[in-house]
Amino acid sequence: MRFPMVLACALMFLPSLAAAADAPIPLSLDEAIRMAVEKNLDVRAERYNPAQFEADINRSAAIYDPLLTLQTSYSDSTVPSTTTGTTTSTYGRAYQADASLAQLFWTGATVTAGFNNTYNSTNTIGTLSNYWESSLGFTVTQPLLKNFGRASTDITINVSRLSKFASLEHFNTVLLNTVTQVRTEYFKLYSLREQLLVAKTSLELARKILSDTKAQVAAGVLPAMEIINAEFGVYAREKDLIDAERAVSDEVDVLRLLLQIEGKGDIVTVDVPRHDPYDVNEDAALKQAMERPSIKEQRRNLDIAELQTRVFGNKIQPDLSLSASTSLVGLGHSYPRTMETLSSADNPAWSLGLTFTYPLGNNAAENDYRKSRLKTEQTAVQLRSLEESTANDVRSAIRGIGSTYKQIAVAERGRAYAEERLKAYLRKKDVGLATNKDILDVENDLVAAKNNQIAATVNYDNAITHLWQATGELLERHGIRVVEGDTDKLYRNIR
User: Which domains does the chain have, with CATH numbers?
Assistant: First the structure.
């Protein structure tokens, strides 16, 4: 009995839950931007790039991890005698167990500590048989010209680190473009809803004209032809209303995808575009624009190119390496005896040497350096081009703010004139001096004037948004700040 009752209750609540899921969603601009920063798929995908470069940094830093090597082997050989008159074969058995630990230093030097143990057993006349030989020593190899110093040793680490900084700036650029798109689409939905209201008002007027016309034709005041004109006016406005409703629905889907809003509920914008004057200091805006994320990213790329050029310049030099080693040797018929002679330090050994190598012509290193120099100069030119185009964008955005603000006043006057003109024609129609076609044409002009006013207000806000995008201050305006540690969490959370 309980299960059918629970099932019935659940079925009763399903329609209300579906209605709640499809209920209109009031959305403020700040809330829309917050949702885009947290949920937008392009933003989320871009967040993985700095985390991958963090993995590259740690992988490159692994060159400083100590390298432990353990090696063991056993060999057994029997060689027939080549001496005339004897058939005795020579045999040899050897067992080897070695261990070493190598460490790289920032100077490029490699220090290796090795502990080697060998057991030999042979029947060769005139040599020891069945004995242990052990050695404990250190070896140092230090490049003196080519590959010397931290710049050459840490090249992959530094390139990975600079690449991560560049990817963070690129992430900022993606965020900047996404927030710009959110603001643009948000107010586009606002403008489409306002245009939808205009279309509804226009349709209501056309239907009223049709109703009045039918009454006047029935009373013999107007010819029947006026009904056709009025009906055509209603048809045209019904089509405009359908198009406006579709445009709103399409824009709601755009915002739903951009903000990753689930469900099918309508989205209702809460905020309206600004229309108050906005003063801009051009010099301050240009200065701020030089710190926008895309320019900072290109500067990081230039840092990488310059670093690689310095390292390639170092590789042109000859390879001169200093090698030094020292060791203690122990020998005995048993392993404990071998350790005693080793620890007594009676058999020390050491060596010191220089190795010089230089490819005649050195074409490979020189052309690597030339290519790197060309890449650095190219990157510098690209940076300069980006800075100049950014400055041009800022000036254009400032002009856009001024012109669109003026358009608001022009559009307001145009709407006022269109409303007065429609009132005048309605009075003329009342005295028979204007036809339905005249009224509908004048009302079309009013619809256009209203839409122009809506567009002018939205365009003004978009112009301000474009300036904030050009200067790179849009994220700061909305309190958005990228912290390196936030992207590193993705790296640390991977197991």
Answer: 28-58+157-304+371-493 (1.20.1600.10), 69-104+109-146+319-357 (no CATH)
